[in-house]
Design a protein that fits this description.
With about 230 residues, the protein is an alpha+beta fold. It is about 15% helix and about 30% strand.
Length: about 230
């Protein structure tokens, strides 16, 4: 039996010091997971239970950024307020559900630098109506992701500067130890809602300083210990 048309190819992300690619299965994102960013978005940063949304896992949405290269993504349609959000991305390498905080690190394959690009005006309009965020978060080319560094190479990343510039000017600067819900807690909580599988990515949240970019802008995203990414808006 064959398919009625060719199935969508799997997105593969490069892995440091490996010829093999990391196959992306699902993409989960954590909302408002840095206190200062929660405040700038108009919310109380107290430790309310984390919430999640998803991005598509297809090649039209996930944009692999090769190490040392600058890639272009198009300015999306239907927005006039196109925002960057730098995030630490956690790659899952082991299946599990109802994972304990103590065991969560065992499920981490590695880490990467990512951008959660956002059509902020569309997101806010949907939020005000109590509707899902997909049109603001899950559009084409919305998730550039860099080289994956395995946990065996980096150790657990619970601290490290997270820094984004636009045209050389610092816009976001914080430390991943400022996450409201740390990586282990995020994995544990998410695994009560979904069975995590090999190939899943978790975008862990963005710090304060989000803002708009326009055509011609160049974003540089870096996290201590990981390979940064350079992305321009075309």
């Amino acid at each position: 039996m064959s398919f009625v048309f060719n199935p969508m190819p799997i997105v593969g992300l490069a892995v440091q010091d490996s010829q093999d690619l990391f196959p992306v299965r699902r993409v989960y994102c954590v909302g408002r997971n840095y206190a200062a960013h929660a405040r700038e978005m108009g919310f109380d940063p107290d430790r309310e239970p984390p919430f999640f949304f998803c991005k598509p896992n297809d090649p039209q949405s996930i944009v692999p950024v090769p190490a040392g290269e600058e890639i272009s993504i198009p300015y999306p349609e239907m927005t006039s307020n196109y925002h960057y959000e730098i995030e630490l991305v956690v790659a899952i390498g082991k299946d599990g559900k109802n994972i304990s905080v103590e065991d969560a690190a065992d499920y981490i394959y590695g880490y990467a630098v990512g951008l959660d690009m956002t059509r902020r005006d569309l997101q806010m309009a949907q939020r005000e109506k109590g509707r899902p965020w997909e049109v603001g978060k899950a559009f084409d080319y919305s998730a550039p992701v860099g080289l994956i560094h395995t946990k065996s190479q980096t150790g657990e990343l619970n601290t490290g500067e997270i820094h984004l510039t636009v045209n050389g000017e610092t816009k976001q600067r914080s430390d991943v130890n400022h996450l409201i819900w740390n990586i282990a807690e995020t994995i544990a909580n998410l695994s009560t809602l979904f069975e995590l599988k090999q190939g899943d990515l978790i975008f862990t949240g963005t710090p304060e300083g989000v803002g708009a970019v326009v055509k011609g802008d160049v974003m540089r995203a870096d996290i201590t210990g990981l390979t940064g990414i350079t992305v321009n808006v075309s």
